[in-house]
């Protein structure tokens, strides 16, 4: 038997990242307590290197490798570049926060990079096992990261909940995948499509498998009714970890849904469309209503995430290039907003103080007008006020759903978005019209100031000129389908 | 085709049935036929002839789990190495290098756990 050397080119970024994770781990072991920041700079350098390589191998062709288990295409490369950017922003935002809380350890960086590797595998998978491998690498790293603050009872509780529910979701997913395998006899995503087209497989087995797969996906996306872990994990984890969980993995989850539902099971679209409609409406409703009752801002943002997931699912319901690319645009917009929101929570916190109550935002305008203005932009964007990016993201998704003929769905979504605006605007009211309860100065380093300003600026500029990002999403989707 | 496929599994079904039968038969026979005269001494925990010192359901040191996990990790590595060693001629240079990469990653993990003190008891 002859073993041919596979074409490694599409996997160069992953190989480089894995190599660099080993370097970061070993460097951190021998650097000592004083040089902890070495891992920070090495991690940023790694991400820059990955971005350089991904940009170098970017092409609009679809390239399969490793016996068709791994694929490099425009969508995977675009999503990977977004993931690098997001993870780098997370690291820069988190630096001061984690060093004040004794979390500035090598494990923070190696686990972040391992999770990044998992996300990259997820968006590049063209085989159900590769897909599962990616999602487990991501999830296991995240469980450990939530529990990184070992002495904190809240964080440990959150980690256990996250782990138990996550394991259950993985079980669902695997069970669904085994059904798909039983129906078709293949685990290759492209061959799944073929065997559905030929109609050789039993449709009923497919649908049972599909239900389990969709349930597993909903767990990972935190869509209602599989959302229960999200608020507890968001609240219990250290804010830096919450920022990480809330941002980059959503990009990977988008890629995951694209690979599995659209590329693999696209022929069954009429079957999963109905399920997604239910999930989407329930997520938007529960997310927006329950967020109103929250006094903890991390919990509130968790419910806000759940409602945003509902809007992202709308894009999938629309089916077709416009729908998927609007969903991709929405995910990128959501990640930009989440980065800024949690970034500001971390900036307001200091040693022994978390700034995770909504009332901690009272009078922020008097304490730091610039920061309050940035938060204003983010909240307006999340609520969907023009000209922010959040408005255009919602508009694009609604347009796609309208074209698909679901008028009632758009009406429901608009009403629920309006209800959601209440709790975003409440934060703005607290910041601008209430007196501060806490008058201590807010201190932060210039690199974070530049980052938060860029973040706020991106939210406005990409909202006024969405064509560039929209074009990017559209071409990524078009070249991958 | 389906019939022959299921036919292949018939011995397994038979095996399961016989296994269940023998297992239940033994238990039921013991329960029905054995003399049953319990007293306090007979029901107490047996500990080398002494009275029991404490409840057997006590907490274990978490370090046992750590050692167990590390053991499994390197035990699996051996399970991976044996078939590879047997098939070394067939897998050629590619298989050799692939295993070297795998072992390299394991060595990084090993250095990590060693330097972190996971192998020290105290």
TrEMBL record, chain A:
Keywords: Cell membrane, Membrane, NAD, Quinone, Translocase, Transmembrane, Transmembrane helix, Transport, Ubiquinone. It holds the Pfam family Proton_antipo_M. Its EC number is 7.1.1.-. It comes from the Bacteria. The chain crosses the membrane at residues 12-31, 38-58, 78-96, 108-125, 131-148, 160-185, 205-229, 241-262, 274-293, 300-320, 326-349, 370-393, 405-425, 450-477. It is a multi-pass membrane protein. The keyword Transport applies. One of its GO terms (cellular component) is plasma membrane. It is found in: Cell membrane; Endomembrane system; Membrane. The keyword Membrane applies. InterPro entries: NADH-Q_OxRdtase_suN/2, ND/Mrp_TM. GO terms for molecular function: NADH dehydrogenase (quinone) (non-electrogenic) activity; NADH dehydrogenase (ubiquinone) activity; quinone binding. Residues 125-419 form the NADH:quinone oxidoreductase/Mrp antiporter transmembrane domain. GO terms for biological process: ATP synthesis coupled electron transport. Belongs to the complex I subunit 2 family. NDH-1 shuttles electrons from NADH, via FMN and iron-sulfur (Fe-S) centers, to quinones in the respiratory chain. The immediate electron acceptor for the enzyme in this species is believed to be ubiquinone. Couples the redox reaction to proton translocation (for every two electrons transferred, four hydrogen ions are translocated across the cytoplasmic membrane), and thus conserves the redox energy in a proton gradient. NDH-1 is composed of 14 different subunits. Subunits NuoA, H, J, K, L, M, N constitute the membrane sector of the complex. PANTHER family: NADH DEHYDROGENASE (PTHR22773). This is NADH-quinone oxidoreductase subunit N. It comes from Nitrosomonas eutropha. The lineage of its organism: Bacteria, Pseudomonadati, Pseudomonadota, Betaproteobacteria, Nitrosomonadales.
From TrEMBL, chain B:
It catalyses: a quinone + NADH + 5 H(+)(in) = a quinol + NAD(+) + 4 H(+)(out). It is a multi-pass membrane protein. The keyword Transmembrane helix applies. The chain crosses the membrane at residues 12-34, 64-85, 91-112. Pfam families: Oxidored_q4. Its main location: membrane. Keywords: Cell membrane, Membrane, NAD, Quinone, Translocase, Transmembrane, Transmembrane helix, Transport, Ubiquinone. Its EC number is 7.1.1.-. GO terms for molecular function: NADH dehydrogenase (quinone) (non-electrogenic) activity; NADH dehydrogenase (ubiquinone) activity; quinone binding. NDH-1 shuttles electrons from NADH, via FMN and iron-sulfur (Fe-S) centers, to quinones in the respiratory chain. The immediate electron acceptor for the enzyme in this species is believed to be ubiquinone. Couples the redox reaction to proton translocation (for every two electrons transferred, four hydrogen ions are translocated across the cytoplasmic membrane), and thus conserves the redox energy in a proton gradient. NDH-1 is composed of 14 different subunits. Subunits NuoA, H, J, K, L, M, N constitute the membrane sector of the complex. HAMAP family: NDH1_NuoA. Belongs to the complex I subunit 3 family. This is NADH-quinone oxidoreductase subunit A. It comes from Nitrosomonas eutropha.
């Amino acid at each position: 038997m002859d073993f041919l050397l596979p074409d490694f080119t599409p996997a160069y970024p992953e190989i480089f990242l894995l190599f660099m994770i080993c370097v970061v781990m070993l460097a951190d072991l021998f650097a000592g307590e004083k040089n902890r920041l070495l891992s920070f700079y090495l991690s940023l350098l790694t991400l820059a290197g990955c971005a350089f390589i991904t940009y170098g191998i970017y092409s609009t062709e679809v390239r399969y490798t490793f016996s068709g288990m791994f694929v490099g295409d425009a969508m995977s490369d675009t999503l990977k570049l977004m993931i690098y950017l997001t993870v780098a922003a997370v690291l820069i935002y988190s630096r001061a926060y984690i060093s004040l809380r004794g979390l500035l350890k090598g494990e923070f960086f190696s686990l972040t990079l391992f999770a990044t590797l998992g996300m990259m595998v997820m968006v590049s998978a063209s085989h159900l096992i590769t897909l599962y491998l990616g999602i487990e690498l991501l999830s296991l790293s995240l469980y450990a990261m939530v529990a990184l603050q070992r002495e904190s009872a809240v964080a440990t509780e959150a980690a256990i909940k996250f782990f138990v529910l996550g394991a259950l979701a993985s079980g669902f997913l695997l069970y669904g995948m085994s059904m798909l395998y039983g129906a078709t006899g293949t685990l290759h995503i492209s061959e799944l499509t073929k065997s559905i087209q030929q109609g050789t497989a039993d449709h009923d087995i497919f649908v049972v498998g599909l239900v389990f797969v969709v349930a597993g996906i909903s767990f990972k996306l935190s869509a209602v009714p599989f959302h229960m872990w999200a608020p507890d994990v968001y609240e219990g984890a250290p804010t830096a970890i919450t920022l990480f969980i809330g941002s980059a993995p959503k990009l990977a989850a988008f890629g995951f849904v694209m690979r599995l539902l659209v590329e693999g099971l696209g022929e069954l679209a009429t079957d999963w469309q109905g399920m997604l409609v239910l999930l989407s409406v329930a997520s938007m409703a529960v997310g927006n209503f329950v967020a109103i009752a929250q006094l903890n801002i991390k919990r509130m943002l968790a419910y806000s995430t759940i409602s945003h997931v509902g809007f992202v699912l709308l894009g999938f319901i629309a089916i077709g290039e416009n729908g998927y690319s609007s969903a991709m645009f929405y995910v990128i917009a959501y990640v930009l907003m989440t980065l800024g929101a949690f970034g500001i929570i971390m900036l307001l916190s200091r040693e022994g103080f978390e700034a995770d109550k909504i009332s901690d935002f009272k009078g922020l305008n008097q304490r730091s007008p610039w920061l309050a203005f940035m938060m204003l932009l983010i909240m307006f964007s999340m609520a969907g006020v023009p000209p922010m990016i959040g408005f255009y993201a919602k508009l694009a998704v609604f347009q796609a759903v309208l074209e698909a003929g679901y008028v009632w769905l758009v009406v429901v979504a608009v009403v629920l978005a309006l209800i959601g605006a209440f709790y975003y605007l409440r934060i703005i009211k607290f910041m601008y019209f209430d007196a501060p309860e806490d008058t201590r100065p807010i201190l932060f380093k210039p690199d974070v100031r530049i980052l938060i300003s860029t973040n706020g600026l991106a939210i406005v500029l990409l909202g006024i000129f969405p064509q560039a990002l929209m074009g990017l999403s559209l071409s990524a989707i078009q070249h991958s389908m | 085709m389906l019939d022959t496929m299921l036919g292949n599994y018939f011995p397994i079904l038979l095996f399961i049935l016989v296994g269940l039968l023998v297992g239940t038969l033994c238990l039921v026979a013991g329960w029905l036929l054995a003399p049953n005269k319990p007293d306090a001494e007979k029901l107490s925990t047996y500990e080398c002839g002494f009275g029991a010192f404490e409840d057997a359901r006590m907490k274990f040191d978490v370090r046992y789990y750590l050692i167990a996990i590390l053991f499994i990790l390197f035990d699996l590595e051996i399970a991976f190495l044996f078939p590879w060693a047997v098939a070394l001629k067939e897998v050629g240079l590619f298989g050799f290098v692939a295993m070297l990469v795998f072992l390299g990653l394991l060595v990084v993990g090993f250095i990590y756990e060693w330097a972190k003190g996971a192998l020290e008891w105290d």
